[in-house]
């Protein structure tokens, strides 16, 4: 299965077309299918783009793109802090051994 990367402009245009013309079709999926064919993009890709746009606009419940980016940033920061904490623990242990040698 190969994944095709679509330009952001094409994604935005396709989503706008679905949002502007979905009343002309019996279902939103029918609009997505017709517009996906017209623009030569995957139907499932367009469905996901429209869903993301609906969540971002507050028309559907879910985590917005902005919130998702913030969560990713916080997870990276958390992982970095955990690594730093482990390094500090190792350093503290090393220096404790060096400064307090075993007595005979």
From TrEMBL:
Can you tell me which residues the record assigns to a coiled coil? 64-91
InterPro entries xref list: Homeodomain-like_sf, Transposase_8, WH-like_DNA-bd_sf
**Record keywords: Nucleotide-binding included?**
no
Q: Has keyword Coiled coil?
A: yes
Keywords (A to Z) from UniProt: Coiled coil
> Per its UniProt record, what Pfam families does this chain match?
HTH_Tnp_1
From the Swiss-Prot or TrEMBL record, give the protein name.
Transposase
Q: Which organism is it from?
A: Myceligenerans indicum
